[in-house]
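Cross-posting from the modeling subforum.

Setting up a comparison between two proteins and wanted a second pair of eyes on the formatting. Protein 1 (sequence, then structure tokens):
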Amino acid sequence: MSLFEFTFALSAVILGLALTHIAATIHKLLLLGKQVKWAIEPVLLAAIVILLIVSVWLGAWGDREQAEVTVGQTLLQVAKLLTLYFAAASCLPEPVVAEPIDLRSYYDSTRLLSFGSLVLSLLLFRIYSIAIDGIPSVLTIGMAVNMILYPVLYVSMIFVRRRWFNILTLGFIIVYYGWQVAGQQLIS
């Protein structure tokens, strides 16, 4: 077993549990039928989290040549992936059979946890990248946009409660981030 296989197993478990949580929650909500008052915002947020998890999972392939790993690196890796798990766990409500569920109200009440987890995740991913690769010698426009755009959008959705703003922003993130990662290729 290679070092990559050994360390990636833990990452795969965390990310797999996050995806499973979203899938199981959607399944339970669908089973509740008319007890659920649907809203687009938490569904879009779940789509963003799924997109992030899949891109992070595939992006880990870049670490396959790593020759050494420290406990500190592994703890930072776990922390950054757990923030994605928290985002996954908070984007949709855990259904209780006897109670009706209003997804719009749920989204509104959990926006700090959901988007706070995503902002913290971005911060931890940046810290991890700097710890492993050092500070980039050249800062491209794309790098600057990614370092500023997503945190600003996530933080704005914590505080701006206008429904149209949240829907447009969530939709923009799906399209823009999806466009950024859709063409990424894994090469062996």
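Protein 2 (same layout):
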Amino acid sequence: MVTGLFSKDCILPCLFPPGIDEVIYWKKGDKNVHSYYYQTDQLERQDPDYRHRTHLFHENIPGGNASLKLSNVTVTDEGPYSCYVGTQQTKTEVEVTLRVRVSSYYALEYQKTDTKRMLKCYAFLTYPAPRISWLQGNTSIQETDQEEARDGVLYSLRSDQSITNTADPYRCRIHLPHEQWSAEWTMQGRNEWKSLPASLRNVTAGFRAKLNTVFLQWGDMDKG
């Protein structure tokens, strides 16, 4: 298993017993990812999804290294890859699974007007689309409103929740396939003010309201 960061480069490893007249084929299902023979790259039949994004380290091939550098990793790159290397002496097949990880951001914002109190839970730049749920105390509750946006293949989601009882803690949970995050809001005192950390102010694109009488706690519920 190899983990690649979205929009970054990653290396798919493939080692083989050194030999002569190397023939290298990288494939993902039926897609031709990269081919090499006659001591040069052969890219005429390369799948368009991988055009200008693959690189073999030619200087390392004689030593038995056919690892592939994949540039500008995207979510559709995720999945199993096969590396075949044939020489006059041996044949080698290596299977590599690529998992793509997106650098997502999460935030919880508190808003108060003369008539209502509101919590807004944000998930920015995730893949796939996240699911957001709420707890009031230990009871599941329905969100008040929701808004979704797309940036290419990435999703951003905002879920709103009205605060009906300030004596209860409220918890926002953001669910993704490989991880879950939670944020908790509780009332602390009438005169206490807290502001969002700078990194969260940036990703909320201008939402810079002070957090009046709020305690925000983020916890990593589960990863795997």
